[in-house]
Write a structure and sequence with these properties.
Elements: H1 18-39, H2 48-56, H3 61-96, H4 103-106, H5 108-123, H6 127-149, H7 156-180, H8 183-193, H9 202-221, H10 223-230, H11 233-238, H12 243-265, H13 271-282, H14 290-310, H15 319-339
Length: 340
Amino acid sequence: MIANTSHSSRTPTPKPTRAILGRAFVFTLALALIFFTLFIGHGIANNLQGIWQLIIGEADKYQSIVVWHWRASRLFGALIIGAALGISGAVFQSLVRNPLGSPDITGFNVGAFTGVLIAIALFGNLYWYSVIGALIGGLGAAVLVYLFAYRDGHSGFRLIIVGIAISATLTAFNQWLSLTVSLETAMTAALWSAGSLNGMTWSRIMPATLLILVLIGLSMLLNTRMKLLEMGDDTAAALGISVNKTRLVLMLVGVSLTAVTTAITGPISFISLAAPQIARRLHPQRHITLFGSALVGALLLTSADFIAQHGWQNTTLPVGLVTISLGGLYLVYLIIREGK
């Protein structure tokens, strides 16, 4: 009697996981967005030969200036600023252990806006004064939120509620300040407050890029400590982590990222709120990852800016209007989900 041993000798091919498919989708979409942002639109030869001439530097001078000086600088700005906002949101959501704990909700970007508005009113629309004002305003808002939210420790939900209150107060103050300054200053602040990548140039984005890269590097160095803090203060302290010091440094890095981006473009909502949660769903262990948040943040802002440029014929909207529209819908979804 011969036993039936007709099992397949072939090793089954593992199916791609959802995480791999998700990352491949993000990467493919990013490449497509970069291509369309650079080479599609009015005034550009929309054919393969014309695009190839632009790539190898044989196109006419006008088209080269449009693509490599105007569009490329704007695209690079969207990528680096989106990455900074994604990391900032990931840091704060990790610290408060709540998906609503982003700079958009807790008022840190509004505080940065307050600092820039005061700098414009006192010194005019000067770049480095705006950066310094944004840093001071964002850090000041963070200090106020943490002081008012402290009660035998910090509760993530209490931080969010206090942050919303501080944000509303600062918004009212910003409106009052806009009414008391000169008309020219008020118009400059109003245009800037919409959050826009219009007028982005290499000379404008490169100095800020160096500062953003330093802050991103610091956040990556603190990534392991941030994950330990997510396990709870007692566990982190037992593993040799200085809880209060680490939380303070992470908060400073997160606020600084928000402040620098706000000083460049004005307040841009939704990216910090959504990027870490989308990246978390693409991660196999469902953790908030800084690298994933940076990639998704860059993709979200680039997508929103593409919509702002091409969504309405002959009209270019501030990217902040697009992100805040999407962010409102996403915030309603988050509140409903958290309520359940």
